[in-house]
Design a protein that fits this description.
single chain; 203 residues; alpha+beta; 3 domains; four-stranded antiparallel beta sheet; 7 strands; rod-shaped
């Protein structure tokens, strides 16, 4: 069992802690921490035990950093974007001093590019939400469905006429079954998002 050592806490932020080893226990200030507590906070083993008297060291609070990065990853995955900004300057400072792999297991998918968290180039981002490209394709699918049903093409709808009322009218005329029959399962998932909530997507 490792020897229990105590340190003065000179400064502590959300992501980092600065400690100093006093010459003797009676020299500890009111703000102190044990080596066990420090190990739990930092996840860095007992390397701080080798501090000499009067020496200071700034250590990263690994669990806090990991929790914040996981929040950013969740935000990235739901955004449908390639990257999102790391707006917390203190977090960014910590990451600049190390590697993302120090804090998360899946460093093959995600990476830091300057002040942004994003997908590594060799990995395609996972799409969770319909895009305007899906909206354009759905209009085409409606036209195709109209043809399947009536054996004639509908009048071309220019972009300025592709509004909510027109979309809802085509929904009633064509129906979801015909649209679904012309697309695969993955694409149909995004078409259905638009179909069920056109107000969010039709501009």
């Amino acid at each position: 069992m490792s020897e229990l050592i105590f340190y003065d806490v000179l400064e502590q932020t959300k992501y980092q802690i600065t400690v100093c080893k006093p010459a003797a226990l009676e020299d500890l200030s009111d703000m102190f921490i044990s080596s066990e507590e420090l190990r739990d906070l930092t996840g860095q083993g007992n390397s701080h035990n080798y501090l000499g008297e009067g020496q200071t060291r700034k250590l990263c609070l690994k669990s806090s950093v990991t929790a914040e990065i996981n929040k950013l990853i969740a935000k990235l995955e739901t955004s449908g974007k390639k990257s999102i900004p790391i707006e917390d300057e203190d977090l960014l400072d910590v990451l600049k001093g190390g590697y993302l792999s120090d804090f998360i297991d899946d460093d093959t998918t995600f990476g830091r590019h300057g002040d942004r968290l994003g997908y590594k180039k060799r990995y395609a981002r996972k799409k969770h939400k319909a895009t305007q490209g899906d909206v354009r394709n759905l209009w085409d699918a409606l036209s195709n469905g109209f043809y399947d049903k009536y054996k004639t093409w509908p009048t071309h709808i220019p972009k300025y006429d592709r509004h909510i009322r027109m979309f809802k009218a085509f929904k009633k005329i064509v129906g979801w079954r015909l649209v679904r029959s012309r697309t695969d399962k993955e694409q149909a998932k995004f078409y259905r998002q638009i179909w069920d909530n056109p107000e969010e997507y039709i501009r």
